[in-house]
Amino acid sequence: MSHTMSQNIFDYATSELSQDAFISLLVAWFDSGNSELEAISKNFINSLYNEYFKSSIVLNIKSIKLKQQYFKIDVYFEVQEENGNIIPFIIEDKTWTEPHSEQLKRYVNRVAKSTGIEKGKIVKIFFKTGHITEKDKYDTQNIHYVNSTQKDEYHNKVPYYYKILDVQWMWKFISKYQVDNIIFNQYVDFIQKEFYSKIYDVNNNLKKELKDWEYENVKDGYVQYAIIENIKNSLLEKGIIENKNKIGYVRNGKAWNTWWTFYEEANQYGIFFKIVPIGKKWRIRLVEYSYKDTTVEQKKESLPKNIAISKKILEKGGYYSNILCSSKGNYQIKSGKNKGKIVRESEIVNLNLDNGLTLVQNAQIFSEFIEDFLAYKNEEF
Question: Are 45 and 59 in contact (CB under 8 A)?
Fold first, then answer.
């Protein structure tokens, strides 16, 4: 039986640049000469404006100036109203990645300087089709990110505030239109398949939770993130830790890397856990990470202690004692270019997720293990 290849251009043009292009097209339809497409464009622009300023007005748009990669902004355009007022729009567009290098703040500064328009009057949108992470929220909304005390009249926040719009927002906006336009319809199908149905339940439009996924889904980064977030929240809710570290998250090509550091020994090492494939099995690994200046002697002292703690916990018994596996440790010396340096990451314990339990149960097991682990760390072991 032959396999039918996809005829959807977005199945091949999967980068954020393709999404930039679609958003730009929605804006450019204002000048399309097609009344139906022009109406969609106006509704889109008004929706962005009202989402940002928490209003419900209809802009009296005279013209739109769309500038590609203006100051390297994903999507930038200026709306001129009939009264001559200019409204700049900044849209930072992401699929699965996060903000970096204070890019959001930099865009606002450059647009404000070039246009002479107050920062608080610039519409700033952070649009992401993938799952929203802790860093996304922090970089778009946290006052400490911008190092400023200046208030914004609309949000009572600094004027660098970005409004987060996720895939559900876009899905609800575009799916309500029946348009005879192949690009529009292919994008609707694409984000429904590749983003919306993965993060939301299409039957009730509720965001999926960890209980909605199974072991087969662990290969996906948003599921790995949900597992780690579940463990972190459990520890925070119990008051076991007061750790302020954000969950780390990187996607390199098709590979996901998600972790959370919950313990740090000053100037020596940190302990984090992450989800990785070992062989053909997905596991949660508890890892001791040596800092740059950690010596071999320090590692030979710290790692055996941490492994000994894990073994002592497992020897106590309990329903997770047969599921977690303690490591033998790894602090060997590297050779070649990095000769004399220690291995930075050394496993303490791991949990095989393919054990017949649900992901929620596995997250609970690992959370309880960390709770015991930290209790021992706080004692003189």
Answer: yes
Same domain, 181 and 308: no
pLDDT digits (tens, 9 = 90+) for 361-378: 999 999 999 999 999 988
pLDDT of residue 329: 62
> Which residue type, as a one-letter code, is found at position 82?
E
Residues 236-253 have pLDDT tens digits of 999 988 877 999 988 876
Residue 197, in any domain of the structure: no
Domain that holds residue 135: 9-185
Residue-wise pLDDT for 249-271, tens only, equals 888 767 788 999 999 988 889 99
Instruction: Let me know whether 89 and 168 are in one domain.
Output: yes
Q: How long is the chain?
A: 381
DSSP bridge partners of 264 = 270
- State the pLDDT at residue 338: 53
**244 shares a domain with 138:** no
Q: Which long-range contacts (CB under 8 A, 24 or more apart) does 262-271 make?
A: 262/232, 262/235, 262/370, 262/374, 263/374, 263/377, 265/302, 267/291, 267/293, 268/294, 268/298, 268/302, 269/294, 269/298, 269/299, 269/302, 271/306, 271/348
What CA–CA distance (Å, rounded) separates 196 from 105? 28
Residue 1 lies in a domain: no
